[in-house]
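Fold this sequence, please.
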Amino acid sequence: FFTYHTLNFPDPSQELAFVSQQNMQLFLVWMWMQIMHFTPRYSFVSSSSQICGKLDAFTASGVMKCDDVEECDCASITLNDGILLNCDNERSCQNSDAFIYALDDFQVECAGLQSCQNSILTKSKTFTISCVGEEGKIKGIKCGGKYSCERLTFLTSAPCQFEKIECDDAYSCKNTAFYISSMASIGEFKCNGSNACDGCYVLALDDGKFFTCEEFAALFN
């Protein structure tokens, strides 16, 4: 019922063995964490006070670009055969959930100020990435704007090989959560911006192993 896989790190001595489960089980674990109010260990002050009502539904295939101010905010996004999800402007994709079925070389780009940010203290917002390409290799996640991925949750629910996860601007991954499947591998993890990874953490869904993002990034140095 269980199979063992290794989350790939640059130094083989730092490899971590996790127990892999079926996709539905990963979702059940994640849902249980939400019910139990599993939250970051650090305090959080929202950079925005926007409250969403009913989420607008957006469905696209291949490339989805949210280029205007507040475009795709308060949304439920479904991207099939995904190549690119680009949230390029101020508060684009803010307070949104995304369900992404990613082809090889897919990338999430949160480039605008507070793009992809979750500013609602009482609700979790999640980008769920399932890799459906032939090789399962994707470019990864790039949080390039200030506060861009703040308090957002990323969840991998299928085997994914990430080339990079980058937190490039100030507070870009503040209190961000990365829930990583045991079958995922990551080539690089970067905390490049000022205070980019404050309160950010990486959690293994299968056994609850916990790293701050700064600890996790140090494994690649």
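The first strand starts at residue 3 and ends at 7. Confidence is low (pLDDT under 50) at residues 1-49.
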